[in-house]
Amino acid sequence: MKYLIIVILLFILFSLGSAMFYLVKGKGQSQNTVRFLTVRVALSVLLFLFIILAAYMGWIEPHQPNFLNRP
Amino acid sequence: MSEASKDQYYVPHLAKWPIVGSIGLTVTVLGAINLLNSENPGTPWVMYLGLAIIIWMMFGWFGEVVKESEERLYNTQVDTSFRMGMIWFIFSEVMFFACFFGALFYARNFSVPWLGGEGTGLATNEVLYPGYEGVWPTNGPLDLGGQFTLIDPYHLPLVNTLLLLASSVTITIAHHALRANNRKQTVIWLIATVLLGAIFIFYQAEEYVIAYQEYNLKLSSGIYGSTFFMLTGFHGMHVTLGAIMISVITVRVWRGHFRPESHFGFEAVAWYWHFVDVVWLGLFIFVYII
Fold it and tell me: Highest mean pLDDT range out of B64-68, B144-148, B191-195?
């Protein structure tokens, strides 16, 4: 499940990077920047919901400090 | 000043702000050196004066750029240089956060396990820190800063994630509204974005107070505390900066600046906000959860 989270995060980074590419190259005329930013937000909301689901289902567990694991 | 032509690069006639900026930087650094080197506690006021000069320079310089932009003095060459400036700025920002995320990754996956005796680190563990278990999170083999409690990711950090995500949604709505030339909607959603950002900063400060006063989790709490506060602290500073930038953009939209087909200032700030939100997602996942 950790890896699925990281894969979605990579897609988010890709859409953010694409938005930057069109921001620099597009001269403001094209809709591509705002489109990719919208995709970026949609993916982020999806990831957020997935994290909540994964935590609720026990697929991912928060880490604990090592001194708490000592006998 | 002449009208913008296609071939000529616009050069301002009297550029006083660069030298003001240089003086501001020099005074700031001299003040900081004085503060650090004084045997008695040095006065911070020289440094504050330098910072004040820099802020004055920013107001003056950016104000002039906004004015010249609205007077249509800039042609496509200037437009390209603004976009180039943005990408280099973002490159430095990406590298900045890559350093801190990299430090976190290296500590978690390499140096801490080695100290705990993993792989070829067995002798390191036996000789230096016998009995130390390299489990993350850790305050290191010497229990630097004493034991601490972790912040529960599903309370304040979850709320903060929701706040920042919501602010990204609102700025995206504002972005679409500006492209549709709906100024009223743009201003409303921009104000919502700034407010959500401000609430985020408030809760982040609240979390720091709880961490320091109740959880004994401090910047000095070994490698975990250091990476935690460096990453979240610098991110918080970026949210603050982004909120200030969006406030300025809101006033500009209110005053009728930008056009549906030409609004680089707006788009750059919007992108920056998205970037800061993605950094937070990374923090939420790698610092708080996984």
Answer: B191-195
Identify the pLDDT of residue B46.
93
- Does residue A16 belong to the interface with chain B, where contact is any CB pair within 8 Å? yes
CB spacing of A34 vs B179 below 8 angstroms: yes
Q: Which of A24, A48, A62 sits opposite B87 (nearest CB)?
A: A24
pLDDT value at residue B201 = 97
**Domain shared by B98 and B151, yes or no:** yes
Give the span between the Cα atoms of B165 and B74, in whole angstroms. 35
B6 reaches A (C-beta below 8 A): no
Q: Is B180 found in the same domain as B67?
A: no
> At B267, which CATH number?
1.20.120.80
C-alpha B73/C-alpha B4 separation (Å) is 5
Query: Closest to A23 (Cβ–Cβ): which among B136, B179, B271?
Result: B271
Beta carbons of A27 and B76 less than 8 angstroms apart:
yes
With a cut of 70, say whether residue B5 has pLDDT above it. no
Q: Is the pTM of the predicted complex or chain greater than 0.95? A: no
CATH number, domain containing residue B13: 1.10.287.70
Domain that holds residue B66: 1-73
Computed from CA positions of residues B129, B133, B134, B139, in that sequence, does the dihedral angle turn out positive or negative?
A: negative
Interface check for A40 against chain B (CB to CB < 8 A): the answer is yes
